[in-house]
Amino acid sequence: MKKLLLPVILLVIGVGSGVAAGFALKPEAVAGDDLLADGHPCGDTQKVAEASQPPEIPEEREYAKLNNQFVVPVVEDGNVVALVVMSLNVEVTVGGRTTIFATEPKLRDGFLQVMFDHANIGGFSGNFTSGTNMRTLRNELLRVAQEIAGSIVTDVLIIDIVRQDS
């Protein structure tokens, strides 16, 4: 009997801890989460309908796909430990694609410098796809694109990113 008592007590403590942790870490209710069991809203129907609509994409934008991928070495202690391969698109105002293609060599040079700097500060190490790392990289890419091509550039999109460790 004593042999069974300790596992049962540990089981009860474990389950209780799990339930307590679940309640403590429960996310806050978000607007639109007030649905009845049958899936119908129990709050303001208009707000729920608006929240379920996809975001509008501005029609006055075009995308210029840069033809070649970017390859960035990740160097640690003087050795290349990984390669990061990225594909980018540049969001521009209507008619701006020709400007992007005309300035592509200069854009690629500026983008590579941003990526090398990002790699040198450890941006491609560890959890390199975290929101903070990606936001920092995107902001710098956008800044350089706007310096080179002007205000026609509205965003730089990272389409693909892969890290291959050596």
Task: Give a description of the structure.
The termini are far apart. The chain has 166 residues and is of the alpha+beta class. Helix content is 44%, strand content 24%. The chain is elongated. Strands 1, 2, 3 and 4 form a 4-stranded antiparallel sheet that branches. The mean pLDDT is 82. It has 2 domains: 51 residues, no CATH class; 105 residues. Helix 4 runs antiparallel to helix 5.
Helical fraction: 40-55%
Global morphology: elongated
**Secondary-structure element sequence?**
HHEEEHHHE
- Report mean pLDDT, rounded to a whole number: 82
- Please tally the helical runs, counting DSSP H or I stretches of 4 or more residues: 5
What percent of residues are in strands?
Answer: 15-25%
Quick one: biggest sheet? 4 strands, antiparallel
Oligomer: single chain
N- and C-termini, Cα separation:
56 Å
Radius of gyration, Cα only, in angstroms?
Answer: 25 Å
Helix-strand makeup class: alpha+beta
The low-confidence runs, each spanning 5 or more residues with pLDDT under 50, are none
> How many domains comprise the coordinates?
2
Count the E strands: 4
